[in-house]
Structure formats: structure tokens, C-alpha cells
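Following up on my earlier message about magnesium ion. Here are the inputs again, as you asked, copied directly from the submission form:
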Amino acid sequence: MTVVSLQEVTREHGQVHALRGVSLEVSAGELVAVMGPSGSGKSTLLNLAGGLDRPTSGSVTIEGEDLARVKDLAGLRRGSVGYVFQDLNLIPSLTAAENVMLPRELDGVRTGQARREALAVLAEVGAEDVADRYPEELSGGQRQRVAIARALVGERRLVLADEPTGALDTATGDEILQLLRARCDEGAAVLLVTHEPRYAAWADRVVYLRDGLIVESNAVRLESSR
Ligand SMILES: Nc1ncnc2c1ncn2[C@@H]1O[C@H](COP(=O)(O)OP(=O)(O)OP(=O)(O)O)[C@@H](O)[C@H]1O
Ligand SMILES: [Mg+2]
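Thanks, got it. Here's what our run produced:
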């Protein structure tokens, strides 16, 4: 089952052609890595896939819903899409646990239940001990784990992760990839931007972007390297 589908998507910022006609489908249970040089359009692709940005032309559908036509885009995003931003975007006035709880509370989950879910997913990413600290009191790696917990909470069916291993050492990066892979094996679709071949090896498929176009797409699945 296709979870997200981009059809001939372009995105222009004035004279800058960030994406120049990209088509990509990601199915439930599939982990697709997106690689490519700085400025090639990786973050733009993720933003469009998650409905955070609109294409200049072409279409994006999530679970069969055309994002250009959906009435409650914010609701669809909250319910279906988990996002790990390149710059994390944690809310500074909320603790780690509150950051993770927020999307669930916006979905109408009661505070007690949202907190239990948040603590469980923080434990899953190895950050339960910092649950009641504020982002500014966390190390880069701890912030990264909290941002990942926020994307994983609530069984989201599409997880978009922009360099989620950026501030992490390789052992921790491997743990994060293991979590994303597990979420995938439970049926989520995952799009992962990474510069590291080490992490791309966890993917089912690697898509290479250059100057806003997909220049190569390879199946990987190197079971032996895991
Ligand atoms: N809001 C914007 N206004 C103007 N140009 C933009 C904007 N956002 C992105 N771009 C341009 O679009 C192109 C693609 O940017 P994008 O952020 O998608 O690259 P990237 O592959 O994620 O790079 P990096 O690896 O550095 O994160 C770049 O040339 C960038 O300068
Ligand atoms: Mg980027």
C-alpha cells in the first residue's frame, strides 16, 4: 500500500528551482533513504511529502488524499505524519516530555494518557531520564532523541526524518536507525535524509538527488551489514 506519493513535483523559490520534476512513492513497510549534495532539494522533498510546503506544480498524496484538496491539512499531518526536522524545532518553553505530548494532546488525547505515551517513546529512544528537562538543558544528542520521540509517538504511518542522526555518534546513530527500521517493519513508511552511506544501508531503497532531480534510485537491503 502506497503511503505517500509525489507525482512530477516541482518547487520554485523565485529563480531557484529547488525541485524540477520528482516522482516518488513510498509504501507501508518501506524505508527510503534520500541522499545528495547540499542544496540538491532533500529538505524540500521532505517538506512537500509531509504537506509542510506546497509544490509549484505536480501533486502529493498521503494515504490516497490529495494534499491540494484535503480540508483539514493540519489534522491529516498531525494524525499521519511524524517529522524530525533538520534543525529539530523543539519548543523551548516545553519540557522534553511536553514536546512529545503536544501532537497527541492536539489530537485530543488526554494529558495523563499523552504523558504515558510520551514517557514510553522517550524510553524507546533512550531519553527517559531527560523527560522533565527543557531543550536548552539538553545536549545535542539528547535533543535529537527527543525530536525523534516526538515523530514516533502515536503510531504515525509516515515518518519523515531529515538528518536525524546529525548530532549523534555512530553507536547512537545506529540505535536511531534501528528504531526507524523497527517502525517501518511495523508498517510505517519512512523517508530518511542522510549523508551517511552507513545509515543508507538500512534502507530498502536509496534515491539520489542532484540539482532538484532524482538521478539514481537503487534497491539496497544489505541484510548482512545490519
Ligand atoms: N525558502 C527558500 N527560499 C529560497 N530558496 C530556497 C528556500 N528553501 C530552499 N531553497 C533553495 O532550494 C534548494 C534546495 O534546498 P534544500 O534545503 O531542499 O536542500 P538540501 O538538499 O536539503 O540541502 P542540505 O543538505 O544543505 O540540507 C537550495 O538551492 C536552496 O537554497
Ligand atoms: Mg536539508
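One observation from looking it over: The radius of gyration is 17 Å. Hope that helps, and feel free to reply on this thread.
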